[in-house]
């Protein structure tokens, strides 16, 4: 594991610690509302894997890559679909509100 991967792993663990799951022991995609989990055993119950998205993308604000206030829970579909847009740009663009699985 590279030094950057180790640092990201620590950032994600800290975010999870600071932002415990809400209702039903899940986080929820801020775009589509689908339940998200970091517990692989819970994926069988309809939850999607938790990914963290950067409000201000890494490409535009590299200094905020590990800023916990710049992270939000998002499903893999919306995280990939958002790409290098800011969260605000993505929310105001045409997008699918339904989380894919």
Q: Structural class per helix/strand content?
A: alpha+beta
The proportion of residues in beta strands is 5-15%
- Our measurement of the CA-to-CA distance between the termini, rounded to an integer number of angstroms, reads 28 Å
Using the CA coordinates, give the radius of gyration: 14 Å
Q: What is the mean predicted local confidence, pLDDT? A: 88
Largest sheet: 3 strands, mixed
How many beta-strand elements?
5
- SSE order, one letter for each helix or strand: HEEEEEHH
Report the total helices. 3
Order of strands, main sheet, comes to: 1-2-3
Low-confidence blocks of residues: none
Task: Describe the global form.
Answer: globular
Helical content band? 25-40%
Compact description:
By secondary structure, this protein is α+β, with helices and mostly antiparallel strands. Helix content is 28%, strand content 15%.
Describe the structure.
The protein has 101 residues and is α+β, with helices and mostly antiparallel strands. The protein has a domain at 29-55 and 74-83. It is 28% helix and 15% strand. It is built from three helices and five strands; from the N terminus they run αβββββαα. It has helices at residues 3-18, 76-82, 87-91, and strands at 27-28, 35-37, 48-49, 51-54, 71-74. A three-stranded mixed beta sheet has the order 1-2-3, with no helix packed on it. Strands 4-5 form a two-stranded antiparallel sheet. A hairpin with a 6-residue loop joins β1 (27-28) and β2.
């Amino acid at each position: 594991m590279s030094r950057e991967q180790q640092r990201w792993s620590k950032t994600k663990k800290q975010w999870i610690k600071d932002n415990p799951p809400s209702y039903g022991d899940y986080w929820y995609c801020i775009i589509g509302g689908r339940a998200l989990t970091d517990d692989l055993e819970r994926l069988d119950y309809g939850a999607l894997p938790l990914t963290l998205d950067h409000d201000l993308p890494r490409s535009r604000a590299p200094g905020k890559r590990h800023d916990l206030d710049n992270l939000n829970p998002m499903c893999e579909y919306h995280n990939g679909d958002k790409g290098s847009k800011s969260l605000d740009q993505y929310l105001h663009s045409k997008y699918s509100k339904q989380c894919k699985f």
